Amino acid sequence: MNRSSDTYLPAVDESSSRSGVSWGAIFAGAAAAAALSLILILLGFGLGFSAVSPWANHGISAKGLGISTIVWLALTQIFASGLGGYIAGRLRVKWANMHGDEVYFRDTAHGFLAWAVATLVTATLVVGSVSSIVSGGVQAGASVASGAASVATQAAGSAASKTSGDDYGYFVDSLFRDDRPVAVSDDAARGTVTRIFVRTLGNDGQLAPEDRSYLAQLVAQRTNLTQADAERRVDEVFAKTRAAVDEAKLAAKQAADTATKVAAWTSLWMFVALLCGAFFASLAATFGGRRRDAVVYLETDAYLTTPVR
C-alpha cells in the first residue's frame, strides 16, 4: 500500500512541474514538414515549367496552370503539415495522470506550433532557393521575347535619339516652318513628323490645323500628291497611329487588371491552403499523441525497463 503511494506521488509532482511544451518534438516535426514542403514545391515548379510552352495553343492554359498551382499548394500543405504534426505528437513527452481533454489540447497545440515553425522555415527557404529557379525559368522565357523585340526596341531607341533631341523639339521645329517647306533629308522629315505625332497623341489626340497642313505639305513634296490628297493621307495615317496607341493603352490596362486579380486570388487561396495546413497539422498531432500514449512498457524477470519520456 505504501509502495503504491510512493510511486504515485512523485509522478503527480513530476507531471505538475514539467512544461506542457515539448520543443524537441515540435522542432522535429517542423523540420520534417519544412523539408517535405520544399521538396513538393520544387517538384511542383518543375512540373509547371514542363507543362508551360511559349508556343501558341501548346501546353497548359493560364487558367489550368492557376488551378493546378492552387491544388498543388493545398496538397503540399496537407501532406507536409500532416507529417509534421504527426511527428510532433508522436515524439512529445508522455504526460502522466493527465485529463484526456488536456492531453488533446496539448497535442493540438504541438501540431499547430510545428506547422507555424515549419511555415516560417519554408518561407525563408522558398525565398532563397525557389526564387532563383523561378528567375532562371523566367529569364529563359523572356530571352525568347526579348530576341523578337530587340529589333523594334533598337529602332525605337534610335528614332527617339535622332528625332526628339529634347522636350521642346516640337516648338523648335515650328520656328522654321514655311508655307513651302524646303527639301530636307528623309531622316529630318521623319523626325519632324514623329515629334508632331508624339506631342499630339500625348495631349488631346487631335491634330492642330497648322500641323495637319504642314504635314500634308511635306507629304505632297515627297509623293507628288495634291494638297488635298496629301491631307487625306495624313488623316488616314494619323487615325491608324492613334488607334494603335489606344489599343496599346487598353492592352496595358487589361494586363494590369488581370495581374491585380491574379495576385488577389493567389493571396486568398494561399490563405486557405495555409489554414488547411494548420488544421491537418493539429489533427495529425492528436493521432500521433494517441499512438504515443498507447505504448506498452515490457517487463522482464531480470530488470524493469525505464520508460522513455
3D architecture notes:
The protein is mainly alpha-helical and 309 residues long. It folds into two domains: 21-142 and 266-309, no CATH class; 162-249, no CATH class. It has helices at residues 2-17, 23-51, 62-91, 100-163, 169-175, 186-202, 209-223, 227-293. Helix 3 (62-91) packs antiparallel against helix 4. The longest helix has 67 residues, at 227-293.
List the helices and strands and how they pair.
Blueprint: H1 2-17, H2 23-51, H3 62-91, H4 100-163, H5 169-175, H6 186-202, H7 209-223, H8 227-293
Which band does the percent of strand residues land in?
under 5%
What global shape is seen? Answer: rod-shaped
Q: Over the alpha carbons, how many angstroms does the gyration radius reach?
A: 36 Å
Q: What average pLDDT do the residues reach?
A: 75
Beginning-to-end CA distance, first to last residue: 26 Å
In terms of structural class, how would the helical and strand content be classed?
mainly alpha
Number of helices: 8
| Strand/helix succession | HHHHHHHH
Biggest sheet overview: none
Indicate the low-confidence ranges by residue numbers: 1-14, 144-166
Give the number of domains. 2
DSSP summary, beta strand count:
0
| Helix coverage percent | over 70%
Subunit arrangement of the protein: single chain
Give the structure's gist in a few sentences.
The protein has helices at 2-17, 23-51, 62-91, 100-163, 169-175, 186-202, 209-223, 227-293. It is mainly α and 309 residues long.
Descriptors:
309 residues; mainly alpha; 2 domains; 8 helices
